[in-house]
Amino acid sequence: MAKQKTLHDAFYETLKDVYYAEKQSVKALKKSAKAAEHDALRQAFETHAEESAQQVERLTQVFEIIGKPARAKTCEAMQGIVSEMEEDLEDFEDSPAADAVLAACAQAVEHYEIARYGTLKTWAAQLGYADAAKLLDETLQEEKKTDALLSKIAESINTDGTPEDAEPSKKGKKAA
What we know:
The chain is an all-alpha fold. Helices cover 74% and strands 0% of the residues. Helix 1 packs antiparallel against helix 2 (39-66), helix 1 runs antiparallel to helix 4 (98-126) and helix 4 runs antiparallel to helix 5.
């Protein structure tokens, strides 16, 4: 009979998953920064790429705290999100909606990471890894802050190519 898996096993497997995801996030953010047209969006990507590199270092510290090697496990979810982002970059390249699509893809990454870091923080606390929980919470707060910033930027991006103060289209309205 196989050994029953424990919460510690789940914590370690999820930690390996998010370690991979965070490394992929750094690459995706750098690519997104190069593609972004809006300065605020480009800056947000560049800043978060630097933060993400620090988050990878924090994850390495968490591995040390639990006495396990820092290993990445392929994260299918992050691969899917990054693949979708690459498709969208190609599909919307040079379109007025390109930056809006980039921001949306970045938020998909953030939402995944927020979910994972929230889980890992809770499990670390339950397993008695207070120092790990603190490190994971630091990253969780950064991810939430980035998500809020991306939301703010996305709201300001003009996605349809018309001037911000232009009247809505009168298409489809019948003459009086």
